[in-house]
Amino acid sequence: MKGRVLIVAGSDSGGGAGIQADLKAVTALDAFGATAITALTAQNTRGVDAVFPVPPDFIGRQMEVVLDDIGADAIKTGMLHSAEVIDEVARVYERLGRGAPLVVDPVMVAKGGARLLKSDAEGALRARLLPLAALLTPNIPEAEALTGVVIDSVDAMRSAAAQLLAMGPRAVLLKGGHLPGATVVDVLRAAPGPGPGASGVPEGEQLFEDARIETRATHGTGCTLASAIAAGLAQGLALVPAIGRARRYLREAMRSAPGLGQGHGPLNHAHTARPFP
User: Fold this and answer.
1) Kind of pairing, strands 205-211 and 183-190?
2) 222 catalytic per annotation
3) Contacts of 233 (CB under 8 A, 6+ apart)
4) From 14, 18, 220, 265, active-site residue
5) Taking a C-beta distance cutoff of 8 angstroms, is the pair 34, 68 a contact?
6) Residue range 96-101: mean pLDDT, rounded
7) Which residue in 41, 137, 223, 265 is the catalytic one?
8) 114, 167, 173, 253: which sits with the fewest CB atoms below 10 Å from its CB?
9) Which among 10, 14, 15, 222 is annotated as catalytic?
10) Average pLDDT estimate for 52-81
11) pLDDT tier at 108 (50, 70, 90 boundaries)?
């Protein structure tokens, strides 16, 4: 096992998303996951019933003690429900986590529709966390909320990814699963740098395309993908290979899902007992 990932996110009592999905993905990819829990949720595949937030100073303390002792090779954030939480996470990262790439999954709304980020916290997300991120991984509704534009095509995704990149992250992976069609396209946009780009992305942009998997097992897909990417970065993979491996891992987890629950079902995070190729 190699690669340490500190996961800062909320707990999902149903086990399909949040901290639970994050830890399963990181472990399945042979990395080590530590956590700072931001909130407890009472939820299942049908939706979120209740949220119990953790005080910001205690979230920060969780991060501090882990970074002081175990350390981290990558840090991944998920549900950060308020501006105060975002500010605390940014503060600790700036002081103790700068050497580790930060993967920001801007969790705003749960699969069942419950809001997981307060509306007044969106400004804090843009101002405090996005400029620190090595990678931002929004889905289309999240990208629309952050940019204020409607995204209804791949071309619109490409434009929105460029807008998001201008907000400060070094790279943006805009996920296209919410668009209709037999093919799902994700758009990666990276800041320019020497050679083929700061993250090895030719011309600063790369598209990932795959056939859509028709399944209701979509609970926790965003959490899983971001954590799988963070595991790759923690293990020393460059950004594009880390994303490629994470997408393969996620797709197989969807294909082999256990079929649990009556709503958006969980994935099969344990579909392989060895590091995924």
Assistant:
1) antiparallel
2) yes
3) 73, 74, 101, 103, 134, 135, 239, 242
4) 220
5) no
6) 95
7) 223
8) 114
9) 222
10) 97
11) confident
**Tokens of residue 138, six digits:** 């929004």
The structure's pTM equals 0.93
Tokens representing 84 are 């105060």
* 101/233 Cα distance (integer angstroms): 7
Residue given tokens 């308020």 in the structure block: 82
231 Cβ neighbours under 8 A, 6+ residues apart? 3, 5, 25, 26, 29, 30, 31, 74, 242, 246
Catalytic residue of the set 35, 38, 221, 224: 221
Could you tell me if 214 and 167 are in contact, meaning their C-beta atoms sit under 8 angstroms apart?
Answer: no
Task: Name every residue whose Cβ is closer than 8 Å to that of residue 138 and which is 6 or more positions away in sequence.
Answer: 105, 106, 146, 164, 172, 174, 175
Based on the number of CB atoms within 10 Å of its own CB, is 82 exposed (0-12), middle (13-18) or buried (19 or more)? middle
Catalytic residue flag (residue 218)? yes
Task: Considering the candidates 14, 137, 175, 204, report the single residue annotated as catalytic.
Answer: 175
Q: Which of 67-71, 127-131, 208-212, 268-272 has the weakest average pLDDT? A: 268-272
Say whether 175 is catalytic.
Answer: yes
